[in-house]
Amino acid sequence: MKESRPELPRWVYGKRGPSLETPAITEKEAAGYLLKRPCDALLALMGLMIAAPLWILFSLAIKLEDRGPVYFTQERWGRNRGRIRVYKFRSMVPDAMERFGNVQAQEHDPRVTRVGRLLRATSLDEMPQLLNILKGDMSWVGPRALPIDEVQVREEGDLADEAIPGFEARSRLRPGLTGIAQIFAPRDVPRERKYGFDAVYAGSQGPWMDVRLILLSLWITVRARWEARGSKV
What burial letters (b/e) apply to 21-38, b meaning 16+ CB within 10 Å? Predict the structure, then answer.
């Protein structure tokens, strides 16, 4: 499969410029790697303390809407294809998995609750993943943690992840609460495009890159643009 370069701001590519030909670097080789894990944990702890009032408010709203469970947990792929259990606020009807199966989210998704629509637009349904960051399963910035059994609907049939350019690069990283693909990739694009964004991060990551992506993510959250069909930023 031919690898194409995602259209991204030039600063995203770092010093190597707009090319995906340079082999992806690992976390250990990235600038600031030794500080990345403790910084992740410290920021997650601070985030939990700051977000405590919202955490309580959302928990009550979810419970009052349909009396279902507040949290949703799911097994996903972690770093080096290890399995992790990811936490989220439940944003779909309680029996969504039984009724609809584990498919990618869609526009006007009938599975999403009223509270869930707000949570998804602001990405605050992922607030409990601060616990995953504290545990070391995830990072603030990295590729999206993919569900183990998620189905990507394709007219021409399924495509093995291992055959998609960028898969190996993204697999070496801890999944992130946010990242280049989450911010810049249009919603509902196929994985072969999203993996290209992840490969860019794998080859350009660093502390200042992470800071900039986190700030962009906060801006998108404030504007409730995470569910936007066009540009989020």
Answer: eeebbebeebeeeeebee
Read off the amino acid at residue 84.
Answer: I
CA distance 159 to 151: 10
Query: b vs e for 56-95, b when ≥16 Cβ sit within 10 Å of the residue's Cβ?
Result: eebeebbeeeeeeeeebebebbbbeeeebebbbbbbbbee
Token pair recorded at residue 89: 């606020």
Q: Using the predicted structure, report yes or no on whether residue 18 has a pLDDT greater than 50.
A: no
Q: Is the pLDDT confidence value at 13 over 80? A: no
Separation of alpha carbons 7 and 180, rounded Å: 11
Asked if pLDDT for residue 183 goes beyond 80, the answer is: yes
**Helix or strand run (H / E) with residue 80:** none
> 74 has which bridge partners?
86
Mean pLDDT of the residues in the chain: 83
